[in-house]
């Protein structure tokens, strides 16, 4: 078997391998190829620094890496790892990283990062053997907004991405797909809540599918959380939220109070190189 960069492979062939690798996964994966084109473009995937394991001409496993700067690090974020069933337990993920890390270093990457479902203990152990360590724990949600008491004593203003240049966001670091540098490349709307001429909260949403990418209050008070979700409810009744940091007690507590289903939990894992 041989490892090659994914810039050499037809996208349709890659997707066929990807979907086969994620059959019977912990959650149903979208099958629309265009979904992944859009998602990986947002994430800043670099196919030159993404790699596949090939058995003759057949791709049997892969690591798809997004490359971008976060704070002071140039990070290779693993946005998708998969091995088709008949090639598992052969150390392919280890071999892919063994091949990739020298190339990352050559291109100035200082850290590798990834997200993995907590219940996927085989994958967690495999990443630990490579040298990854758990850095964060995340919770994901999906469901209907059951906001009984709403407050509407505020103005909802649509803003642009320059909002993030003017404000210090309460959550210092969002996960890769929810980070502002990723969201800039996507189809998102930005909203600010204004009360008595002061901005009290904000959120970033894809109103087409109800995906809530960022949301927070500037003053952590129950009424401000109610105002925030009252505003979100104007946009959609059904929302999906990925990767809320488990350290954010107030945010998690308010989400739980609305009865939204906690679907999966994830680890963020990092490897400094």
What does this protein structure show overall?
- The protein has 8 helices and 12 strands.
- Helix 3 (92-106) packs across helix 4 (121-130).
- The strands form 2 sheets. Strands 1-2-3-4-5-12-6-11 form an 8-stranded mixed sheet, sandwiched between helices.
- With 273 residues, it is α+β, with helices and mostly antiparallel strands.
- Strand 8 and strand 9 form a beta hairpin.
Write a brief structural summary.
The protein has eight helices and twelve strands. The chain is of the alpha+beta class and 273 residues long.
Helix and strand topology:
Layout: E1 2-5, H1 11-21, H2 33-43, E2 51-55, E3 58-70, E4 73-83, H3 92-106, E5 111-117, H4 121-130, E6 133-144, E7 155-159, H5 163-166, H6 180-183, E8 189-195, E9 198-206, E10 211-217, H7 222-235, E11 238-245, H8 249-257, E12 261-272
Helix pairs in contact: 3-4
List key phrases describing it.
273 residues; alpha+beta; Aminopeptidase; 2 domains; four-stranded antiparallel β-sheet; 12 strands; elongated; acyltransferase; acyltransferase activity, transferring groups other than amino-acyl groups
